[in-house]
Structures are given as C-alpha cells and as structure tokens.
C-alpha cells in the first residue's frame, strides 16, 4: 500500500512539472511495463521507473522553456541581431578588417622597399610626405610635394587625378568607383576637350577624384580583383566622429614621435584591410583621406599598392629582385614603382612586351595599354626606348621622368592623340622596327631583322637604297626613316609633294609638384616682398612641322618670292610657320620623343622637370 502511495505521489509531481507544456500522448500500461527488465526485483523496477519518469519530466521542462513565445521587444531585438549577424557575415566574406602582417611579411615588405642599410634620411623622406592638394589657387588641382623621394608616387597619382578631374567630371558625384573599362567606353570613340579653368574644381570634387584614382590604381595592382588598403593602428580609430581640421590635429598628435627606422617599427603600427568590392574600397578610402593627407600618406599608398599586387608577384615582376624599390643614395622611386602604379606590374623597363636575351633570359616591359602614359628624358639621351603602350595612353596624360624627378604633362584635347597619315604610318613602321630591336632601345637592328620589317610593313626599297642601308651590317632607325620619307607611297613610303603632311598645332600643360619660390607671385610684407612657395604649372604651344627636322621646317616654311605660286600656297605656308621662334628646355626633348618634329613655346620661366 505504501508503495502504491509513493508511486501515486511521483505521478502527481510529474503532472505538476508538465504544466504550461503540451500534454504527452498517453501510453498503454503494457508498453510501459514492457521496457522493464524481467530479471529485476520489484524494488529495483520501481527505482528505475522513478528515475526514468524524473528524467522525462526534466526534459519536458527544458523543452517548454525553449518553446515559450518571446515578448515583442525580445523578438524584435533577436530579429535585429540576426540581421546584423548576417550583414557581418556578409561583410566578413568580403573584407578582413585591421589585419596585422606577420613578422615575416613585414620584413619582406621593408626589404623590398628599402633594402638593408637604408639611411635615416631616406626613411625620413618617405615618412614625411602626405598626399595633399596645393593651397595655391592657380595650381590647386595639383598635389604638392615637399620631400624629394616619393615624387614617383605623387606624380602617378596626380596623373590619374587629372584624368578624373578633366575627362570625367560628371562621374565625381557618384559614390561607386567605376572600373577603368567602364569609363573608357563612354568617351574613347569621340573627341573631348576639357575645361582649362583649373581654379573651378571644388574641394569635394578634388577629394572624390583623389579617392577614385587611388581605388582605381589599387585594383589595377590587384588584377581588378582586390585592393589592400594600409593604415596605421595609432590613428585608424582615433578620427572616428571628428570633422574638418580637428582630424588633422588628432592625426598629427597621434603621429608625434612616430619614427619608422626598421621593419619592427613598421610592424607595430601597420594594419591592412582587404577588399574585393570597388564600392567598399571607395568608402574606406574616402574615410581615410585625412590619414593619406598626413605625413605618412605617400608611404602608406605605396605599401597598399605593393600588397594589392602581392609581394611574391612584385618580386616575380622584376628583373633583379635583389635591389630595393627605393633607390640609393637619394631615395628616389624606381621605375618599377612607377610602372606598378601605371600598369599594375612592377616591371623595370618601359619598352613594349619583353626582350629575349637568349638562353631563356628575358627583360620584362609593359605588356598592355595604359590609362595614363610615361615619357622620359633618358630616351632623348638614347639610354632607353619608351614603347607605344606608354607613349600612347588612353588619355593624353603622361608622367615625365628625368634623372632625379617625376612630373606630369597633359593636354585638354583628346585629339592630340589622334594620328594623321604620317604619324599612323610612322607608328606602324616603328612598332615593327622596335619588335626586332634587341639593342635595348639603341635604335638599330640586324640585316636579317630588317628584311623581316620590310615584309611586315609592305615596303619595297629600290636595290640601291637597300644596299646602302645594309652595307654596314646593321640598320639605324634614323637613316631608315629618312629613306621612307623620300620613298613614293606606291612603294610603301611617305613622300609628300605638298610638304604639309603631318603638321599639327596644339597646347600642352606641364605640372611640377615641388613647391619652390615663385618670383612672379611675390607677396608684399612688412619686410618687403616674399616669394610664394608653390608648384609650377606651365602652358606650352606645340607645333609639329610637316618636315622631318625643325631645321628643314624653319628653312622652308617661308615661300621664296621666285617660287611663290598661288595665294593659297602662301597662306598654307603662313599657317605652317610657328608663331614664335622655338624655345628649348629638357621638357621639349621629352615631348619630341612623343612628337619627333615638335617645337615648343611658352611664356615666362621655362618648364622644369627637376
């Protein structure tokens, strides 16, 4: 009887524990008793039954707590949390925020950029150059340079900024960063003339042009698949919520005392974000503009470009990966840095494609067309040969290299890139000639290669001219071109009976970002006139004469009285004459590597490329 009462109490406790939960379906007595072992005593059976029923009661209570309907506020919060979690998971797939580089990666990065034994002066140059627009109204569209080393980085960014400011002003108000191919399809087929009112660009337009340029360049380095953006841990989170000049103050204070003298110094502060979406990278760069404007800006952007490319890929691009990218003893940006920012590959040469040296050895050049191009004074000195990929970019903007500095040359009219009959034929022949030139840009080829050029370009030289060119065992470009200019068109030449073929007149602008004293813009002070420190912008009038050499042009431009024909011929001669006597500066030599017969004029001080 006591046992029956105990069992009844247990069942009552079980029913009470099941309140606020769905009732369990009833089970028949035989099924309950069937699970009991037949060999147990009655006392053991009752004990086992109690344990099973207690465990079942506990399980039902837990299930009831989980299935209880939540309050409306809890449900809303949970839904919000779920949404935020999904958004975070979505972003996590696309971006890894604030990653530290490993000790090995930072040491490799530092060695690639600076090498071993780099001087403190070079490190100071690269740690004290921000990416800032000039405060001078006349040059406010340009980036101002104070340190000598990072000019290759600044000039290349400047070229892309001008592309967006001049040729895509309508795109600057859009948040999404368009990829280069999307921009090209809109205007590449028609002539477009940009405005020369450089003072009219607003601060917002310039900032957006800078962000679009940086995003485009980083994705170019990342094969249009990724971009890595480098920042500093000491300031990346300190500017949140601050505005305007207060950001500059906060960043300056955070950078106070910061010195990068080794890989370990860099590892302590360097952080990187990786992006696969141009829109996400655009927003991140937009938020980071104050950081790139700080004294660490140029170095951070170079690191971003290198990591976007990938350090192993950068080393594979180079002909000699043992040398640092920042050259000693003056800390200049190497050609590999400039090429990386122009075409996305850190190749060391400026010719098209690659040069076969035999024995499985190659020298790497520019393998594809580019948005903005490159010209160099070294070509006019016969130290190298710039290929058509860099000479003829999609937009009439060129980074100009000298022995120690990089500047920018640009035109407002895309028609300066259009080739007339003479230029088109010259480009065709020169491209075939350069493809056979194994001299590293020396401008001469073998007799066997020369015959290949003649077949490819459908040039039929008379036997006496062919023998004259080949008798030395090699063919020089300048001599070959003179023969082409005197060869009839039906033989593949460019003989011009009118003397006007190839004539062009257009304007170019040259920007040098180094802030120097401008005596023409002196400001009056109590102590007298003080020269203004500003970058330099020079407008050039370029005349490409119809003759092969400027000397021939100047001698023949005026029609002799005895040979004067009709009034129209005199008028043509007057149009062909330059407005002023030609002026000379090293920049003019660079321009003639692009337009070989060009003569240049300007007003005021000569343009400087140093």
* Strands, count: 15
Shape: globular
Query: Residue-averaged pLDDT, rounded?
Result: 80
Uncertain runs are 20-38, 71-78, 84-97, 553-576
Helix percent band:
40-55%
Radius of gyration, CA atoms, in whole angstroms: 36 Å
Characterize the largest beta sheet: strand count, sense, and whether it forms a barrel.
Answer: 6 strands, mixed
* Number of helices in the DSSP assignment: 24
Question: Could you explain the architecture of this structure?
Answer:
The protein has helices spanning 2-17, 29-34, 42-67, 72-94, 103-114, 120-126, 151-167, 180-187, 203-221, 245-255, 263-269, 278-293, 297-309, 311-317, 335-343, 377-380, 388-391, 421-436, 447-457, 463-470, 477-485, 550-556, 567-576, 586-594; strands at 96-99, 227-232, 270-275, 326-327, 332-333, 354-358, 361-364, 373-376, 397-401, 406-410, 444-446, 474-476, 504-525, 528-544, 599-602. With 610 residues, the protein is α+β, with helices and mostly antiparallel strands. The strands form five sheets. A six-stranded mixed β-sheet has the order 8-9-10-13-14-15, with helices on both faces. Strand 4 (326-327) and strand 5 form a beta hairpin. Helix 18 (421-436) packs antiparallel against helix 19. Mean pLDDT is 80; it is low at 20-38, 71-78, 84-97 and 553-576.
Give a brief rundown of this model.
InterPro entries: EF-hand-dom_pair (IPR011992), MINDY-3/4_CD (IPR025257), MINY3/4 (IPR039785), UIM_dom (IPR003903). Among the domains are: 99-173 and 196-322, no CATH class; 421-491, EF-hand (Recoverin, domain 1, Orthogonal Bundle), CATH 1.10.238.10.
